[in-house]
Design brief:
The protein is mostly helical.
Length: 196
């Protein structure tokens, strides 16, 4: 099966352009969701910085594989965001809970010690699912699996190392910009679910 290099390059450019648009739309949606679900407006930059650094580390280290497909390179950031943003949210909410009774530094230590087992177990299931891609008959499966497993590992690294420092740095601003929960409680549905 032969694809002319000019046609292949135009397809790669088209996909890269489409993925840029998808990433922009996803970023707007994620910021809106974070605005609705966060406990403080200052948590949003902490979450975004953590994710951006993880994505840059992942993209910047793809050279270790020698060559990866343009599809893997294009979709990695969006998939990394979808697969790993919850790690940062878990730690952020743990920090908020601990900071209600503890000073900033101690709250961060306590939050990290409680969040590491949760995030690690969650990441293991994700990594197992991604490892299954490596057994596809098509080479892109192995390509995507290795790039995305690396993405998950970098996301965890940033959540466990960079994010605690950001939480301590932004803690005063997080305390000042707290807001009420913007998502209404849906207790009737929960009660119905429990009864049924």
């Amino acid at each position: 099966y032969y694809i002319d290099s000019a046609v292949g390059n135009s397809q790669a450019d088209s996909l890269a352009s489409e993925m840029g648009t998808i990433l922009a739309v996803a970023a707007v949606i994620i910021v809106l969701v974070l605005l609705l679900t966060s406990r403080s407006y200052a948590e949003i930059p902490v979450l975004l910085i953590t994710f951006i650094v993880a994505a840059l580390l992942n993209l910047g280290t793809n050279f270790i594989f020698g060559e990866i497909s343009f599809v893997s390179n294009s979709v990695t950031v969006v998939l990394q965001l979808a697969l790993a943003i919850d790690y940062a949210i878990i730690l952020c909410h743990r920090f908020s809970d601990e900071h209600e009774t503890l000073p900033t530094r101690e709250a961060c230590i306590a939050a990290l010690s409680k969040a590491i087992p949760e995030i690690s177990s969650s990441s293991l299931t994700t990594i197992s699912g991604l490892a299954a891609l490596a057994f596809m008959h098509f080479g892109i499966g192995r390509d995507l699996a290795t790039v995305l497993i690396k993405a998950i590992l970098f996301s965890m690294l940033c959540v466990f190392t960079l994010m605690p420092g950001l939480l301590v740095l932004f803690s005063k601003l997080i305390d000042k910009t707290r807001h009420k929960n913007l998502i209404p409680k849906i207790t009737a549905v929960g009660k119905f679910d429990i009864k049924t």
